[in-house]
Amino acid sequence: MKHKVAVIGAGNVGASAALYVAERGLADVTLIDIVEGMPQGKALDMQQAAPLWHKGGKIEGANDLAAVKGSDVVIMTAGFPRKPGMSRTDLLKANADIVRPAAEAVKQHAPNAYVVVVTNPLDVMAHLFWKVSGFPKNRVMGMAGILDSARFRAFIAMELGVSGADVQAMVLGGHGDSMVPLPRYTTVGGITVTELIPADRLAQIVQRTRDGGAEIVKLLKTGSAYYAPAMSAVEMAEAILTDQKRLVPCSVLLQGEYGLKDLFLGVPVILGGKGVEKILELELTAEDKAALGKSGADVAAAIAELSGATV
User: Fold this and answer.
1) More confident residue, 85 or 119
2) Of 85, 101, 142, 291, which is least packed with CB atoms within 10 Å of its CB?
3) pTM of the complete model beyond 0.70
4) Strands 180-181, 187-188: parallel, antiparallel or unpaired by DSSP?
């Protein structure tokens, strides 16, 4: 039986994710958005492109969250970007008001789905989706580590003039300024990157990775990144749908791992047909542990802030 993927949010990230899923022939796709006509129009455009991909599959648009019914995987992208004058708490509350009904709809209409959360602030929204849905922790995860690692891989490949396919990278922590790139666990064709790039230059690349999203926002002026975030979410969906057992960093619920509890944070996991099948605990330096602890504290503070904002 053909798989089904529902993408909630038909903006740039959501539409790109729907396109990648359909283009790869992974599943039938339902694109959902509250804006009348937009998901239907984008879905119809993709359906008309489908014969050119030489792949079958159905792509449809909907305005009702009940259209998630029967989904194997739900990709949650809907949300507001932070606008000038908007406080962090305002953004948290605004996007929580979008995530909450989505989680309730998935709980009701797609109770067996696996959920990949992309909505920002990502780690906090993944926690909220998990809490509202009541799903087991292996079925709700946030897309962050794969995107941040892909950016790190791209910058290293650009620096060395090699294929990004030969670069393997590991970025942990929250999706934001406090992410924790790990050069010790980053290789090019099996060679540790610390042997290929001088420490001072590598530090600059690490910082550019942290600023990866902001750099694109600055260049675009009126928007933010969407191709790489969408592809990162689809990588996760594909790992689940095809039971790939990928070892990748994802934002998942920690319950004691790395000394952190009751929050979502990016760590290495085995991602397969049962969702988050295992969390791996890497040996970290004292510096990396401290950085991961700070990242966790930032996420925990935002979760607490949201709780206070929604009382």
Assistant:
1) 119
2) 85
3) yes
4) unpaired
- 53 or 19, greater pLDDT: 19
**168 φ/ψ angles, rounded to the nearest 5 degrees:** -115, 130
Q: Is 70 exceeded by the pLDDT of residue 86?
A: no
- Cis upstream peptide for 81 (omega within 30°): no
Q: Please name each of the domains of the chain with its CATH number.
A: 4-142 (3.40.50.720), 145-309 (3.90.110.10)
* Residue bearing tokens 């030489």: 54
Catalytic residues: 175
DSSP assignment of 9-27 equals --SHHHHHHHHHHHHTT--
pLDDT value at 22 more than 60: yes
Token code pair at residue 137: 């922790």
CB-neighbour burial class of residue 260 (10 A; exposed 0-12, middle 13-18, buried 19+): buried
Output the DSSP codes for the chain.
---EEEEE--SHHHHHHHHHHHHTT--EEEEE-SSTTHHHHHHHHHHHHHHHHT----EEEESSGGGGTT-SEEEE---PPP-TT--HHHHHHHHHHHHHHHHHHHHHH-TT-EEEE-SSSHHHHHHHHHHHH---GGGEEE--HHHHHHHHHHHHHHHHT--GGGEE--EEB-SSTT-EE-GGG-EETTEEGGGTS-HHHHHHHHHHHHTHHHHHHHHHSS----HHHHHHHHHHHHHHHTT--EEEEEEEEEESGGG-EEEEEEEEEEEETTEEEEE------HHHHHHHHHHHHHHHHHHHHHHHHT-
Strand 167-168 and strand 261-272: the pairing is unpaired
- Rounded to 5°, the CA angle 126-85-211 comes to 55
Q: Beta strands 28-32 and 4-8: pairing type?
A: parallel
Other CB atoms within 10 A of residue 301 CB: 13
Which two three-digit tokens encode residue 81? 């970007």
CA nearest neighbour of 120 among 140, 86, 151, 94: 94
Tokens linked to 283: 């040996």
